[in-house]
Amino acid sequence: MSQKTVRLTMAQAVARFLTMQKTEIDGEIVPIFGGVFAIFGHGNVAGMGEALHGIKETLPTYRAQNEQGMAHAAIAYAKASFRRRFMACTSSIGPGALNMVTAAALAHVNRLPVLLLPGDVFANRVPDPVLQQVEDWSDGSVTANDCFKPVSRYFDRITRPEQIIPALRRAMQVLTDPAECGPVTLSLCQDVQAEAYDYPEHFFAEKIWGVRRPMPDGDEFAEAAAALIRAKKPVIIAGGGVLYSEASSALRTFAERYGVPVLETQAGKSSLPHDHELNMGSVGVTGTSASNTLAEEADVVLAIGTRLQDFTTGSWALFKNDALKIIGLNVQPFDAHKHHALPLVADARAGLEALNAALTGWQADPDWTDRAKSGKDDWLIAADEATASSNAELPSDAQVIGAVQRARDKAIVVCAAGGLPGELHKLWKADGPGSYHMEYGFSTMGYEIAGGLGVKLARPDADVVVMVGDGSYMMLNSEIASSIMLGAKLTIVLLDNAGYGCINRLQMATGGANFNNMLEDTHHVALPGIDFAAHAAAMGAVSRKVASLAELETALQETETTDRTTVIVIDTDPLITTDAGGHWWDVVVPEVSIRPEVTAAREGYVAALKAQRAG
Ligand SMILES: Cc1ncc(C[n+]2csc(CCOP(=O)(O)OP(=O)(O)O)c2C)c(N)n1
Ligand SMILES: [Mg+2]
Asked: From ligand 2's centre to the CA of 491, what distance in Å?
């Protein structure tokens, strides 16, 4: 059989293949890759660099400042696109590649698609050891990029140019599969990137990827429906899968038709608008009183598209009804079966639509639904108190959230780590699906600004507000420069409480001394007195420090139409958090200590453990 071929380097084949992968969004065929982030080194500049230059008009390449940052941006792009579109990232070998490992883990935990293309050592091994090559004395096939294996859904090392054909096909299958979805790492040996091969032309045919929506299995569905029909006090826990499956409208129909309150995880927040009467808001450790009271009593939890991580389940101490049944509606069997759930393996939307049609006649106990509504009213009073403006010299995080919300109520808020995620989960009034962008699967300090960049690239018309602590800012801020270069305007609100406020509070709560979290509690000769506004300005941002909540609100209004990334710094109180709502979280306390505070905390800890349900 003779087939038409085209002679390309392996890297050119990668580039050409990526441009031909498409998807359909709102009736329009668009490239499925939104672009490529690249930082070149000897491991990719000649191969991938030359190839990406050749296609830059169809698939743009963006130069970032840090490989972890660029991968964060790429992952945020996919999340903001509800996984319908994604990006690729290419790095050199060694440090450049390994800088992406944390981001790979982030994508792995959060089930988000990203194509990582790190360079690798020479497949022919002639010049070994090359610059940045990690030499393994016992295994000649190991390279630094083996670190990607446990945090990639699919990993392959390309040691011959023709291997890229099945590897890219498998990569696309994983990236677009709602159940398998996650990071794909194709480790591209640097000599092979530049090696030519006669690739079959059909390999570069246009391919349009859709969304697979698996339907529930008949038996699983019958069991789940029967459990719901018996339920008097059901709740829904809405996770990120509701958003990725674009199931908000089916969720709303279900909740309204059957009177079932909806509790949202960090990834699932914005599944329903905040002011929907059956949206109880956040659940779990950072949950509202409205959600958590219901979760404690619920007899059936319909867990949709959620990993049921400890923040959601209060380390499995939240649910207190002995007769509790969990139904795991999830496209991924691994999640659907968690905690002895009745699995309902299906696409969230397809599953909800099937349930919407099948349960006619059933209703949650009307008292339960009414209690949910009044519990929410009570919560809103507490939330308004926490977020109200004040003249406090050092405002709380909650008060800053209130100011941001008042000034920019249509924004997409982006955050990841520190004290803010808990406060935002409870207090941010999320509007439409995707208006709340929280990376709390891995809670990676340093995701915030780079993530904001990815959101802005995915949603150029949106007002993207990044909220970030001083600690996270210090860890990774350099993609501010990329946002300036790309004209991707972000509004960054930096809450400076002079240290790792949330870990300091956790340390105190576990009986520890104030040690090594707040800057003043560290081993130091002098405190750095970081001028964040000057730092951001040095990267090209518009920046200012504000002295009060009122000034913050004004600054946010004034800079709404500024055309470049804006950083607004405000000093905040490291000790105040919102008391209302919340739940215990399992963080170990030492069994023996010379500190009486630790011994006391240990007693409380041991008592709290009794509420945990073993899976
Ligand atoms: C990369 C990374 N390292 C460490 C942690 C653990 N950690 C979580 S929050 C936090 C402190 C965050 O400080 P900051 O951004 O100033 O927020 P604050 O706690 O003060 O609100 C630390 C060290 C983490 N989540 N991510
Ligand atoms: Mg801080």
From this structure: 18
| Residue closest to 267 by CA, chosen among 106, 453, 392 | 106
**Structure tokens of 209?**
């990827």
E strands, 28-120, are: 28-31, 33-38, 61-63, 86-91, 114-120
Nearest CA to ligand 1 atom 1: 445
- pTM of the full structure: 0.98
Q: Which two tokens stand for residue 52?
A: 């990406």
- Separation of CA 474 and ligand 2 centre (Å): 10
Angle at 136 between CA 134 and CA 137, to 5 degrees: 140
Which amino acid appears at position 339 of this protein?
H
Peptide bond into 395 cis (omega under 30): no
Residues 55, 333: Cα–Cα separation, whole Å: 39
Mutation to probe ligand 1, out of 502, 530, 575 (largest number of atoms < 8 A from CB): 502
Index of the ligand 1 atom closest to the CA of residue 502: 19
Instruction: With beta carbons less than 8 A apart as the criterion, state whether 615 and 318 touch.
Output: no
Q: What's the rounded Cα separation, in Å, for the pair 156 and 601?
A: 48
Place of tokens 């909740």: 255
Q: Quick one: 487 exposed, middle or buried, by C-beta within 10 A (0-12, 13-18, 19+)?
A: exposed
**Contacts for 146-152: CB closer than 8 Å, 24+ residues apart:** 147/98, 147/101, 148/97, 148/100, 148/101, 148/104, 148/116, 148/118, 148/183, 148/185, 148/187, 151/101, 151/104, 151/105, 151/107, 151/108, 151/183, 152/104, 152/108, 152/116, 152/182, 152/183, 152/184, 152/185
**Whole-Å CA distances, 561 to 228, 462, 486:** 49, 12, 17
Ligand nearest to the CA of 417: 1
Tell me the CA end-to-end span of the chain in Å, nearest whole number.
57
Helix (H, G, I), strand (E, B) or coil at 501: helix
Q: Distance between CA atoms of 551 and 590, rounded to whole angstroms?
A: 44
Closest residue by Cα to atom 8, ligand 1, is 418
Distance CA 306, CA 243 (A): 11
- Is the CB–ligand 1 distance for residue 469 below 6 Å? yes
| Closest C-alpha to ligand 1, atom 10 | 418
Tokens of 385: 């108190």
**Buried b / exposed e across 277-314, counting CB within 10 Å, b at 16+?**
ebbbbbbbbbbbbbbbbbbbebbbbbbbbbbbbbbbbb
Distances (CA, A) of 263 to 280, 284, 290, 438: 5, 9, 9, 16
Render pLDDT for 242-275 as a digit per residue (tens, 0 to 9): 999 999 999 999 999 999 999 999 999 999 999 9
pLDDT tens per residue across span 528-583: 999 999 999 999 999 999 999 999 999 999 999 999 999 999 999 999 999 999 99
d(CA 463, CA 485): 18
Closest CA to 400 of 468, 490, 322: 468
CA distance 564 to 349: 38
